[in-house]
Structure formats: C-alpha cells, structure tokens
Queue: 2 jobs
Job 1
Amino acid sequence: MSDSLKPDTLDAKHDGDWQQRITAIKRWVAYINAEPPETWGPQQNAVVNGQLTAAQHVATSAAHQQHVTAVAQEIRDLQESDTETSTVRDDHD
C-alpha cells in the first residue's frame, strides 16, 4: 500500500476514464452500423472540425514552446540526478 491515496485515486480515475471511452466507442460503432453514412457523416465531420478549430486556437508561440521544453529538460535532469543519488545510497547501504 502506498503512503498516499493520491496515486491510487488517480489510477482509479484513469481506469474509469478508460472504461468510459471504451463504452462511448462501442456505442458509436453500434450507431454507425445502425444508421446510414448520410446521417452520421455530417455529425462526425462537425466533431472533427470542432477539434481542429480548438487545436488551432490553442497555438502557442515559439518562445513558449522553447520555455516548456527547457523546463521539461530541467525536470528530467533533476529526476536523473535523484535516481543516480539513490543508486549511490543503495550501493553504500
């Protein structure tokens, strides 16, 4: 058992999200099998177009992307440093 319930709760949430996605996919497959493409085609196009529009509105500047990349690298470096430190400690214990 972990010291914190947060990881367990997050894992449970992800499992629930996964199950919801699978259920929605199965429902969509049943729907497109039962309805002609003329019915569901425009609906699917509207969803895809909405997603594309949303993605375009979230565009970030090159400077922001570089900043995010730099921060991510710093985090990876710290994690690697922590891993190396714990390995050295384990070797000396």
Note: The chain has a mean pLDDT of 83.
Job 2
Amino acid sequence: MVHATGLHKWALDLTFEGPSSNPSFPSALLIKISLASTVNENIIRIPAKVLCAFALLALAAAAPQDQEPAYILKQESDVNPEGYNFEFETSDGTSRQEQGTLKQITEDQQAITVQGSYKYNAPDGLTYVVTYVADEHGYQPQEHIEQPGQ
C-alpha cells in the first residue's frame, strides 16, 4: 500500500507467512511489517492503537497449540427393528450416549423417540453436560455445568 501526504510518500507492506519453522511454535503465523519513506529517513509514527492491534494479532497467532488428539476409549452400538442405542467416550473427556425407541404415535403413524446425553470439557475449564429428549414435541435439551473437582 502506498500513501502520499504532503511532501512525504511512504509505503506500508504487510507480509503473512506460516506455518513457522520454529519447533516451539509450529503453527505460528509470521507477520512482517515494513515501513519505508521515499522522501527521507524520518521515522514514521504509527498510531498506538494500530500498533497494539498488530501486536495482539501476532501474539494470538503465535500462541502455542497444546491440544492433543483425542482417542476413542469406548465405543458401543446396537441397532434393531425396535430402535437403537450407542455410546462412546474419548480420551479428552468427551462422551455421548443415546437411545432411540420406536413409538406408536397414532394407529397408522410411528416415530422414533430419542433420549441421550453428551459431555465435554470446555476451554474455560468447566465440564458441560447436556441431556435431551427428542420426540413428537421436538428437541428438548437441558444443560448442566460441572465445576472443577465435582
């Protein structure tokens, strides 16, 4: 980007490169900022808000990604003409279980009634548990938040 003000003509060049070759920050985004003045060697002042925004962007992009892949610890399922059920659990604390049962709604109409729950550990350190029922009245979830140590 080139901008001219008065007698000064200056250029701002932003270059985004990634991922980083640094093993400590493999997913880091490298941001190069170059400012040049074509009139003289005067320092070009960048507004503090703009400089802070670039610095925060660089910090966020360079933050280490410590998330390990999740592995399946348990997985079971059963499907039959009257319904189904399944459950699984992963190494990161995520789990889900669900049962579906064939239900007679009217004399000539059937539907599956589903009930189940799922649980996951959020980045905020809390564990969220959602239980639900899905039937002719719609999807009806209920959320519960477990504090650490519960």
Note: Residues 72-146 form one domain.
